[in-house]
Each structure stands twice: as C-alpha cells, then as structure tokens.
Design a protein that fits this description.
446 residues; Arc Repressor Mutant, subunit A; 3 domains; 3-stranded antiparallel β-sheet; 16 helices; 14 strands; elongated
Amino acid sequence: MAATDSVKRAAEETKTSSLHYAAVLLKRMISPLSPGDPTAADFGRLSQPMLEIGLAILAEGQDRGRRLNRLKAEIAARGLDSLLVEVEAADPQADLAALQISDGWISFDLADVVKEDLPPVRWVVKPYIARPSVTVFFGKPKTMKSLLLLDLCLHVAGGYPWLASDSSGVDGIEVMLGNVVWLDLENGAVTLKRRMKAIATALGMGEARGQLQAFSMPRPWPDLSKADDADALIARLKSMGDVSVLVLDHLGQVFGAIDENSPLAAQVMGNIRYISEASNVAVILVHHSKKGQGKDSGDPADALRGSGAIMAGVDAAYLIERDKVESSHLRLMPVAVRGPDAPNASAQFAYERDANLDLTEARFWRLAFRTAHARAMDAVLKVLRGGPKNHTELRAAAKQIESGISDEKIRQAIATLEGTREIYFIKADKGAKIYRLSDESEDQQD
C-alpha cells in the first residue's frame, strides 16, 4: 500500500510548478555538464515522491550511466513519462536556489504590476495571432481549414508575409519568423506530409530542420481534460527549443471523456490556456461549426460547435467559409476578438497536381474581400446572365448561389443594380416584374 501511495503522490507532483525544480535537480545528477551534485539543502526542498527518486539515483554512486538507468527505472515504475521529458529538457547548470517551489498558485500584486516594464504584444501573424494566445479557426467540414492554416504556419516557419497577392509579398500580412509544432489528430501522416511538401515547394523553402515539426495520430493520444497530459505536452514543447506556434487539429479530439457541449469544456480550455502561457506559444485550434449553420440567422460566433466555454476560452475566433460558386475561394472573418480588430480577408487556393492527382505545389493568395452585399449583387447578375427572371425567381436563384445571404440582402442587391442601371425590368401580367441585364436591352435596340 505504501508503494502505491508513493506512486500517486509522485503523479500529483508532476501537476505542480515544483516539477521544473525537481527536473533540474535530477538533470544535475545525471549530466556530464553538471557543476556538481545538489546539496542537502537542495534535496530538502523536494517533496517526498521526488526526494525518493533523487535518493535512489544518489545510491547508484558517481557513475552517470548507472544513475540515468536508475532514473528511467524509477520514472517507469511510477508512470511519470512527463517527468522524463522535463528532465531531458532541463538545464543542468541552472541555479537551483533561484528556482521557486510552489503549489501552482503564484500571485502578482498590483503594486508590482504598475512598476513592471511589460513587454509589447508579440504578433506571430499581425493582428490575427499573438504569442502567447489561444485562437480558434472554425468552419464547416471540407472548407480547407487545415490547408489554409498549414499555409499560414509554413509562412511563419519561413518568415514570409502571408496572403500576399503576388510573389513579391509586398501586400502580405506581417508575420514573425518562428518554429511551429503541428499536432495532427484528424488527417493522418500521409495526407499531412503531402500537403506540407506541396506548400513548402510552392514557397521555395529549403531543408532547414526544426521549422515545422509534426506529430500525426500520436500514441498515447493527448487528453487535455487531464492536467498531467497538459504538463507532458508542455515538457515536450520545451524539449523542442523555442516554439512559436502549436496547432491542435482538431480541438474536438483532445476532450477525452468530456462532451465538448458540456460546461466541463472549460476544464479543457483552461489546460490549453495553461499550455500557451507556460510554454509561451500561440496555440491555434482547428474546430468545426455546428451542423445546419450557414443560414442567415443569429450571430456568426454562435456557429462555433460545442459549449460556450470554448468561445469564452479563446482570445480570437475566425470563421472560414468556402465560396459556393468559386470553390477555390475562401473567406476568413473575425467573429470574436479580445483585442485590436482584425480585418476580414479572402484567399484563393492555387495548386498543381501530377498524373496521380497528388498535390505537387500549393499555396493561398490574397483576394479582395467581398461583402455580403457585393456577393449578393454578383449572384443576381450571374442568374440574369442565364436569362430573364421575375422577382421571385430571381431571388430564389440568387439564394441558391449564395445560400448564406439573406433574402433581404438579395432584395437590396436588386434595388442597387436597378439604381445603377445594370439591370432593368418590364411589367408583365398582374404587375409582375421581369428582370433582364441592361446590356440585353441595348442589344435588342440595335
């Protein structure tokens, strides 16, 4: 029973900020770069479970190899994989006396904050994604969400302006060069590798290591409803050096046994926030919209699938929509932002395929953003290019092209086009209006 209690206590220890202190102390005992073994006072600051591990290693004598083997055995016996990752990432020359031990509750006082020289916001993608932050991009299935964000991340990894209208990058969105970690929990390694290679080829990226590292369908599967899984991910990120961006594709896969529609979703979002701040990374979440969304009703922010705790737990939420007429065109719209306003953006997916229809080059280019009113006018004109329509038929056909636009917007578009004389109508039986394109009228007069 005592051994079982020790394992439980050690597992609990990995959930606190004391983990970093213990990891540095243990690393000092096994590393050839260590300035010497910890002192008795250093050991005295350890909690009982970590002290047991430290003393077991000390009992192996001065042989670093035997100490390392004993550390691994002690960690395996307690099921503390996250501790081993943290030890591997620790600096053996760090000053143990300068490291704080706490129970995870660390306060800061207003008196200190007002005097603190706070650093400016670090924009990974200005003004869409800051570091650290938690941002969600969501939309219906098959709206190229993952592709668009992979394109964004490779621009960050290469330091290239994003969504430029041409290869000069002059009008692209400003990015800060940084390394990216992509956690793929949906598409699979084969698909992800092909997409990575196609976009990198289009960008002319070289073979520098560490720019974008991906994990696809990892085992064990991350369950971010659990604090120890969050700690393990933090330790893994720290072991990978200076990571700017972490992508979770997609969010619904990390809830474990928690229903994403439950208020308990706040527990997952809290752990994701902790990962962001503890690792100083911009966390990008890929998620889905609710079924049946796209009809003109309600706030677009309400389209985000799952509990309201998800929206409450992010700094910004962006809706991605795929154009129903031009399927290679996307719209990126901020629906909730905790900070400076971010503009709408539109993008066109450009690609090349080989004889097997595999992507060989792919990337997104900037498009001029089209408002709902402009898209409604485009739809009306497109319908009338197919021939005359009465008012009811015209509205219904335009709605089929732009189903996300309200009937009122289409009525306004018709009125605008009448006002600009791009379309006209003639009266038919029972007062019905038959609409035509104005150039048809001119042709008929010739």
